[in-house]
Structure formats: C-alpha cells, structure tokens
User: Fold corrinoid adenosyltransferase from Tistrella mobilis.
Amino acid sequence: ALVLLDELNIALKYGYLQLDQVIADIQARPAHQHVVVTGRGAPPALVEAADTVTEMGMTKHAFKAGIKAQKGVEF
Assistant:
C-alpha cells in the first residue's frame, strides 16, 4: 500500500500538524505500507526518520511561461 502525504512539509512549517506526532504515526504504520511525503523544507527530524530522501529541482515549469496554476495540477 502507498500513502502520499502531498505538501505535508508545508503543513508542518505552518504548525497545522505536530512534527513529533507525524513521525510517530509514520513509524507506527503497517509494515507493508509505504509513505511518500512531499513539500519543500522538510524538517531535519523528518529527514532523519526517513528511509529515502530525494531533492528535486525545476528544469522547466509552465508558470515561467506565463501559465497560471492549474486545478488538478498545482492545487
């Protein structure tokens, strides 16, 4: 099973969720469940708890060409 916590790091940054509780919940997941967390600025404690950390960089984005955020893509 796969759980995607899209933009979780932003929710943590603004204090909508408690980091310690999020880490505890992720660590308590079933053994067959994988969790993917997205968003900029992952807290160091979350990075430390992760099995894998990947940083992505923008090469090309529609916004740079004047295309506004699109429903279903950016939000």
